[in-house]
Design a protein that fits this description.
Blueprint: H1 2-26, E1 43-53, E2 56-67, E3 70-73, H2 79-86, H3 89-99, E4 104-112, E5 118-124, E6 128-134, E7 137-146, E8 151-154, E9 159-171, E10 174-175, E11 182-191
Antiparallel strand pairs: 1-2, 1-11, 2-3, 3-4, 4-5, 5-8, 6-7, 7-9, 8-9, 9-10, 9-11
Amino acid sequence: MKNLIVLKLITAVLILSIIFSLFSCMNEDRIEGPPVKLEDINGSYKGRLITVQGDFRTEKIIDFKVKKDTLTFPEFPIKEIVMAVVKDPIKTQNALTAMGKVKYNLKYTSVLNADKNWVELNFISKELELQIPVDGVTKKAIVTLVAKQKGYFAGLDHTLRFALAAEKITVNGTVLDPFEMVYYNFPYCIKN
């Protein structure tokens, strides 16, 4: 009998703690922070880039600019893309050296959230065209870059977060198969 009373008491306490936990979590969805305007996102950024392709992962710092409705990468990271096309590490490095810096512009639309403390970015996918020199021949590669999720500019710390993926590569009109997607994650970008 005493065991049954103790069991009921423990169950009641557990149920009450779950209910209180759920109510406290309901208000945590709101991000607090100072108000921002759509123009606050404009500027030069330095961001942490995590590139993932299958089991391979690299990290580096990359610079880019945001102006009005465009993210401009003066030197977009293409090493994994070129490696997928060329396959040979030495030839890949030679092709990257010959290609130099590759500029990429990514268009977006933006909206403020209801509390006006962060900006949501919806990216407009644009293909990246590369001319990859290999063994005296130039291969035309069309890379389909997509945003799998929205980006965010937070008013609290004025940081930008977003992600892209190289979903498909077409080389001289033929879809590269097999191809493992390349993910470009920008988890934390700050204004210079």
